[in-house]
Amino acid sequence: MTTFPEGFLWGAATAPHQVEGNNLNSDFWANEARVPGMERSGDACDSYHRYAEDMDLLADAGFTAYRFGLEWARIEPEEGLLSRAELAHYRRMIDAALDRGLTPVVTLQHFTHPRWFAEAGGWLAPDAVARFTRYVEAVCPILDGVEWVVTMNEPNMLSMMAALQRDMLAQQASGQWQSPTVDNARPAQLPAPDVEIGERLVAAHHAARAVLRARTDAKVGWSVANRAFEARPGAEAKLAELSWVWEDLYLAGSAGDDYVGVQSYSSQWVGPDGVEPHPEHPDNTLVGTAYRPDALAMAIRHTHAVTGLPVLVTENGIATAEDDRRIAYTSDALRGVAAAVADGIDVRGYLHWSLLDNYEWGHWRPTFGLVAVDRATFARTPKPSLAWLGSVARRNGL
Ligand code: FCB
């Protein structure tokens, strides 16, 4: 049996906008209404009301951690107007996790913003960092007992989405818009992350970290999407250039953090001209990416090499309708994690994406969940992968 370090966290992850439902004051909700071709999040999985049931599923299956997020758009629906009721709601979620023996891994910002923040210029507005810092100050009082805080989810994808948004009006006119994750099917068409915004996000992360360090006992980090780039012969310089823009700027931004979150799904070839379009293939996932369970170990090794920090796998999973493929993919990915640990890399845990089949940023078809959700009744139906990964968690080994 392959075993994992003592105290290794075994969990699953969700994000507020993707599971809660009716995130009315967020910029993403507004985009959904505006952009043709985007499916609506609507009630999502109604986890806003059903989080206790979600956590029961995890705890009963044997997991020890749950990564979920606080929704800034609910907590601060108008600039400066803080909702005590929403803060109390998220404190109840933290308590619900702790009561079940689930270590909460709490994300403060996961792709969505309050609508007012976006309308006031988003991350490029002069006050953007101060606005985010005020929000972080507001949530500190509810973080008592929380050991792991992720300030921002995938700032690199957020910068890419900002670049995409900039192009969106043009795309909208021609009906070409697809969600960024689904667009991974044609990665060559994804704009590179906007470096100016990326640098803003690094500044915001550092400001948030200072606040969290002063007011909480949490370990502070952020989670970076890793594309596990591989260079074709002769494309090494291109790979180095793309690595900086896509990942290393953000990994460098984690210097001084307590840990770094690794998020990995697939890998990506880089040729002399850049990221190669990913071809159609019968093994491709439901978001069009290559079936590459080995990408996670590549991501961990790259992240460790750049940062030297302890690593927490904050997302890894596969969009598939076939649950046995999810189990096969995850087994292979975990073998890669174990090999990285055996080589001396400090990996603290594995949080699968996702607990639930949820709203995949504009689409409902890509199913990443360990648990299926009936969108009319909200009934949860665990898939075999939930019990399987729970048993891995109980044994702390494969
Ligand atoms: C990541 C996001 C997460 C989910 C997965 C599939 O980029 O952080 O919300 O969409 O991809």
Automatic annotation (TrEMBL):
Record GO cellular component, one term: cytosol
An example Gene Ontology biological process: carbohydrate catabolic process
A Pfam family: Glyco_hydro_1
One MF term in the entry's GO annotations: beta-glucosidase activity
Cited InterPro entries: GH, Glyco_hydro_1
Keywords from the named record: Glycosidase, Hydrolase
PANTHER family in the cross-refs: GLYCOSYL HYDROLASE (PTHR10353), LP05116P (PTHR10353:SF36)
Family assignment from sequence similarity: Belongs to the glycosyl hydrolase 1 family.
Protein name: Glycoside hydrolase family 1 protein
Species for this entry: Propioniciclava coleopterorum
Organism classification: Bacteria, Bacillati, Actinomycetota, Actinomycetes, Propionibacteriales
